[in-house]
# Entry
Amino acid sequence: MGLSSFFKNVFGSTKESVTELAENAESTFEQAKEAAAPYLEKAEIFAEETIEKVKEASEPIIDKAVEYAEKASDVINDVVDAVTTAVKNEEPKETILETVVDVSEEPIDKD
# Structure
């Protein structure tokens, strides 16, 4: 009976210790969550303000980029039109194909 009561005491106290540890962990987690809440709110506000500042700062740059892209597109279209017109207006060239033989050299014999 002594050994049986020993194991009951050991495992019983272990169970109580684990339960107490879990309760303490839960309490600590809740305290940490409460303590972190103001910092999370400040971080959220900071992120929102930063995003808004980036939007405001980038707006003129984006507008200029769009304007530049439109001008570049117009210039490219003008170049394509000019090349197309030049090709259409160009007279077709006559292609002359001739075979030229150099008779000053001896022919190569194939053996």
Notes: Residues 2-89 form the longest helix (88 residues). The radius of gyration is 44 Å.
